User: What shape does this take?
Amino acid sequence: EAGVTQFPSHSVIEKGQTVTLRCDPISGHDNLYWYRRVMGKEIKFLLHFVKESKQDESGMPNNRFLAERTGGTYSTLKVQPAELEDSGVYFCASSHGLTNEKLFFGSGTQLSVL
Amino acid sequence: GQQVMQIPQYQHVQEGEDFTTYCNSSTTLSNIQWYKQRPGGHPVFLIQLVKSGEVKKQKRLTFQFGEAKKNSSLHITATQTTDVGTYFCAANDYKLSFGAGTTVTVRA
Assistant: This one.
């Protein structure tokens, strides 16, 4: 069974540019989560999809962040325009059915905004 | 969401020694999960604790959930170099809220 895959693994952009991160969850997993970790700090919740619906987006920092999950399969997270404080590792995670059963994490996207 | 504090933030351990990392919450938790992230890797689920006072073991790792369900601990005995990484606890309400993790390094 393929795990959660994320693309790209690394992205270096300049302040003001746009970046789109992609996550392919494990097939059949209805729950998809986006998290972000800034070095040395907690893994911070961004949002949660159940299938194609946003269940909880309370962790999204501001309206520069837009997440979509069209068709309830893969998800994208777009940052536009990127700011310096957006740097960090963006993790995607998925789980099968019950909310908050164990999460399967992707390898993350290391975003560096210069 | 829940706020969880993990201590210590860093743990430098001599190979073969034991250590404990702690996870504390100001509110009662429905359950708690533990994850391990190896250097350069991603968080991997270790265990979930649900019951008050629950103790679970995985080889050299012992996980405990406090009686009041406000704290949890992870104790590792006879630390090995394979134990390096960051250990996160995650409080479970309607979403998982992660602590900042305990980063473990091991000196041979």
Remarks:
- Chain B has a mean pLDDT of 94.
- Chain B has no helices and eleven strands.
